[in-house]
């Protein structure tokens, strides 16, 4: 199946710092999604990107759909303790009528030190 | 409240004993899907369903079955569970399978096969 390379695998940062993570693929995706998973819960969608070059914000979160359509970035500004969790990128190939599911990255585990 | 409900949340079983994990959504979504999450591997799709009576294999379907007799329910069946199926399972649904549709995840089912 498709492979998404998500990095870094984990991050240890101080509260208030900015965070950056990214996903890359050898294949083109039509949609990029970023999810956050809290312990004991399912992933929750943070940001969805539908067009190459698109830059979208959701509060302190900003994500970009790479121009090549093979990568995406997520930035979190001024991190706070509740940002702790695992962040997943996901790519979708089909733009309609297809049978492709989401391909997920392996996750970035964010740990914030007070 | 819109939600995807999985049951049970936790399950311990023995090799070879058939089990079913139920998934139900109350959003009248057409598309439903099952994923398994394993450390270091992220989420991988097991099976998906585009609508009632329409199911297809995802990336890791071996050892699993599904059915979609009603729109709201999408049970995952393990006919003869094996220890390598010990994992965290998530059901997800979305309105329909085209781009720009967001998948909503259940809270997860943690399965241990002894």
What does the model show?
The complex is a heterodimer of chains A (114) and B (114). Chain A is built from no helices and eleven strands. With 114 residues, chain A is mainly beta. Chain A has strands at residues 4-7, 10-14, 19-25, 31-37, 44-49, 55-58, 61-65, 71-76, 85-92, 102-104, 108-113. In chain A, strands 2, 4, 5, 9, 10 and 11 form a six-stranded mixed beta sheet that branches. Chain A starts with a strand and ends with a strand. The mean pLDDT of chain A is 89. Helix content of chain B is 0%, strand content 50%. In chain B, the strands form two sheets. In chain B, strands 2, 4, 5, 6, 9, 10 and 11 form a seven-stranded mixed beta sheet that branches. A four-stranded antiparallel beta sheet of chain B has the order 1-3-8-7, with no helix packed on it. Chain B is globular and about 35 Å long. At the A-B interface, β4, β5 and β9 of A face β5 and β10 of B.
- Sheet of most strands of chain A: 6 strands, mixed
What distance separates the N and C termini of chain A? Answer: 39 Å
Shape of chain A: globular
Give the chain pair forming the largest contact, with residue counts.
A-B, 30 and 27 residues
According to DSSP, the number of beta strands of chain B is 11
Strand content of chain B: over 45%
What order do the helices and strands of chain A follow?
Answer: EEEEEEEEEEE
Q: Compute the gyration radius of chain B: what is it?
A: 13 Å
Radius of gyration of chain A: 14 Å
Mean pLDDT of chain A: 89
How would you sum up this structure in a few lines?
The complex is a heterodimer of chains A (114) and B (114). Helices cover 0% and strands 54% of the residues of chain A.
Name a few traits of the molecule.
heterodimer, A: about 110 residues, mainly beta, 6-stranded mixed β-sheet, about 0% helix, about 55% strand, B: about 110 residues, 7-stranded mixed β-sheet, 4-stranded antiparallel β-sheet, about 50% strand
């Amino acid at each position: 199946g498709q492979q998404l390379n998500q990095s870094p695998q984990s991050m240890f940062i101080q509260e208030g710092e900015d965070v950056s993570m990214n996903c890359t693929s050898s294949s083109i995706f039509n949609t990029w999604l970023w999810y956050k998973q809290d312990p004991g819960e399912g992933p929750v969608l943070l940001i969805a990107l539908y067009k190459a070059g698109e830059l979208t914000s959701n509060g302190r979160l900003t994500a970009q759909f790479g121009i090549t359509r093979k990568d995406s970035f997520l930035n979190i500004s001024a991190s706070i303790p509740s940002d702790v969790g695992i962040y997943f990128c996901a790519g979708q190939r089909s733009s309609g009528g297809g049978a492709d599911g989401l391909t997920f990255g392996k996750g970035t585990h964010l740990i914030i030190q007070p | 409240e819109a939600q995807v409900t999985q049951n049970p949340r936790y399950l311990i079983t023995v090799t070879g004993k058939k089990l079913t994990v139920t998934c139900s959504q109350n959003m009248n979504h057409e598309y439903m899907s099952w994923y398994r999450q394993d450390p270091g591997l992220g989420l991988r799709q097991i099976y998906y369903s585009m609508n009632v009576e329409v199911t297809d294999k995802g990336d890791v379907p071996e050892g699993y079955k599904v059915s979609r007799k009603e729109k709201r329910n999408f049970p995952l069946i393990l006919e003869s569970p094996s220890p390598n199926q010990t994992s965290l399972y998530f059901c997800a649904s979305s309105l329909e399978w085209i781009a720009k549709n967001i998948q909503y995840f259940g809270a997860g089912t943690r399965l241990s096969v002894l």
